[in-house]
Design goal:
Strand order of the largest sheet: 1-2-3-4
């Protein structure tokens, strides 16, 4: 929902509603659920909001905040206030934040990938993310 397009690497095919054969052979089709690398989105989030998603900075205090302050000293006063204003407004779904800490995001392929190997998609969040997480949990138990 942040309207951020990034070029990322597909790590794994995780779920396909059509057939498990497509998951086993790692075939990319439309509406396949894949795992993608979260690093480009982490970097964008850090630049836009000044929040490092790889660490649990909110829960753990002390040294991590001191390091963050050292980095902030290099920024201009205007940029610091802008980041603080954005940080006050920003809210991230806990399920998505948990995925950022693991370094892998679940995404759905929206295009129909062809011979070139290029595909477009979107990061799962909200109800759709919880739905597919439940599906993956059932698959692991079976």
């Amino acid at each position: 929902s942040e309207n951020c397009a990034k070029k990322v690497r597909l790590l794994d095919v995780v779920y396909n509603s059509t057939s498990n054969e497509l998951v086993r052979t790692k075939t990319l089709t439309k509406n396949t659920i894949v795992q993608i690398d979260a690093q480009p989105f982490k970097q964008w989030y850090l630049k836009k909001y000044g929040v490092d998603l790889s660490k649990k900075a909110k829960r753990a205090g002390g040294k991590k905040e001191e390091v963050a302050e050292e980095v902030e000293e290099k920024k201009s006063r205007h940029v610091i206030f802008k980041l603080k204003a954005r940080e006050a407004k920003q809210k991230l779904d806990p399920a998505v934040e948990e995925q950022f800490q693991s370094g892998r995001l679940l995404a759905s392929i929206a295009s129909r990938p062809g011979q070139s190997g290029r595909c477009d998609g979107y990061v799962l969040e909200g109800e759709e993310l919880t739905f597919y997480k439940k599906k993956l949990e059932k698959k692991k138990k079976a």
